[in-house]
Specification:
about 25% helix, about 20% strand
Length: about 80
């Protein structure tokens, strides 16, 4: 199943914008914008990720909401 036909693994309704490439729990790999923002604000951002939409939506969320800068890596296809 392609990422475009998936739903957010957390809320079950949003369209995923990012995939966690090293998930702690494999049942939660795909995150919509609202759930991804909530993760960042909570202080638990995805560190190794792949943007699904072709534009850096998750990267912008990190810039806007992440107060503790860590090392993040983009996964290559």
């Amino acid at each position: 199943m392609g990422a475009h036909s998936r739903k957010c693994d957390w809320c079950g309704s949003g369209t995923p914008i990012v995939r966690d490439m090293e998930p702690v729990n494999p049942e939660f790999q795909y995150w919509c914008e609202d759930c991804a923002r909530a993760l960042i604000i909570k202080g638990d951002p995805i560190e190794t990720y792949r943007e699904l939409d072709g534009e850096p939506i998750y990267g912008r969320l990190l810039d806007e909401h992440c107060t503790l800068k860590r090392f993040y890596s983009f996964a290559t296809a």
